[in-house]
Design a protein that fits this description.
- The protein is α/β, with parallel strands linked by helices.
- The protein is built from eight helices and 15 strands.
- The strands form three sheets. Strands 1, 2, 3, 4, 5 and 11 form a six-stranded mixed beta sheet that branches. Strands 8-7-9-6-10 form a five-stranded mixed beta sheet. Strands 13-14-12-15 form a four-stranded antiparallel beta sheet, with helices on both faces.
- A hairpin with a 7-residue loop joins strand 13 and strand 14.
- It is elongated and about 85 Å long.
- 38% of the residues are buried.
């Protein structure tokens, strides 16, 4: 395995690259752009890279389905870090282009919902066509295939373009969550401000089946931060569920919830326990009464005394 190489969703100039460069360890690694999320993750699977940074969730559009599906299938991988990056777009054009000259625009499919209202107000007749990434859209503009691209302003210099309009976003405070993914290993020690990610497959489909899964978390006081269904490919109505839960697998309430799910789900994939981005330990709400590690230990001690005849 190349321990000095990180891959990311490329090409150069993507928001993913910008997010990766916020990690201190990125300064000592070779950063290799890949053409797609699957390609970035496969480089980790086959040992060409130690880790990959890929987008997984957007505050406007929700989960990034290509990443969720890749993590749910194939050779298992694990999440070790997450990065939150504020997202604002610039309209990148070739030098000399005016707004009235823009007839065709491009960008990543996830970008379109974030600039839809701006497009409607400023370029109502422009034709949109999606690109593999925002930076790839900038490259296509450089090659003359489109008039403009929505991308990060930082991508302009890389592709010889100029930002015609900056700070474009329909939703204030929009941000994208990225995850650093590696091969499975022991999770990092808990920090007190952690997140645990899993993918669950239900058994037989029956009324309340999803509720039964969610109750494993609810009765133990585990807060869910994301739940998203994804088709399994086994036919209409067959879904798995990507879930982010607050806490670390070593927390008793989280660990026991996962054990409960393991007993009832035909398949469960642990994707990792890792520090929450931008959240300090003091900012995390205390566990509800009866759900702390101490409460679980006290309950276990009580049961042992009962079995010993000394309740």
């Amino acid at each position: 395995m190349s321990a000095t190489r990180f891959t990311y969703l490329g090409p150069e100039g993507t928001f993913t690259e910008a997010a990766l460069r916020t990690l201190p360890e990125a300064a000592t690694r070779e950063l290799v752009p890949m053409v797609s999320v699957p390609a970035a993750l496969d480089a980790v699977r086959n040992g060409e890279a130690a880790a990959a940074l890929v987008p997984i969730e957007n505050s406007v559009e929700g989960g990034v389905t290509s990443t969720l599906d890749e993590l749910a299938g194939g050779v298992p991988l694990m999440i070790y870090r997450e990065v939150l990056l504020p997202i604002a777009f610039a309209l990148l054009v070739r030098p000399g282009t005016e707004l009235s000259d823009v007839k065709t625009v491009t960008g990543h499919p996830v970008a379109q919902p974030q600039v839809r209202n701006w497009l409607r107000s400023n370029l109502p007749d422009a034709l949109w066509e999606s690109a593999a990434s925002n930076a790839d859209g900038a490259r296509l503009v450089q090659e003359g295939r489109f008039d403009a691209a929505f991308a990060g302003e930082f991508a302009a210099a890389t592709y010889g373009l100029v930002p015609l309009v900056t700070e474009i976003h329909d939703a204030q405070n929009a941000e994208t969550r990225f995850v650093l993914v590696g091969r499975p290993a022991r999770p990092a020690a808990p920090t007190g401000a952690d997140k645990t990610s899993v993918v669950l497959w239900m058994g037989d489909d029956h009324p309340g089946a999803l509720l039964e899964l969610l109750q494993e978390f609810a009765v133990r006081g585990v807060n869910l931060m994301l739940i998203q269904s994804r088709p399994t490919g086994a036919g209409i109505g067959n879904y798995c569920f990507a879930i982010d839960a607050e806490g670390h697998i070593s927390d008793r309430r989280v660990g026991e919830a996962l054990m409960g799910l393991k007993r009832t789900c035909p398949q469960i994939r642990f994707l990792g326990s890792y520090p929450r981005a931008g959240v300090a330990q003091g900012d995390v709400q205390a566990a509800r009464a009866g759900t702390s590690d101490g409460d679980f230990t006290a309950a276990s001690d009580w049961l042992t005394r009962c079995l010993d005849g000394r309740p």
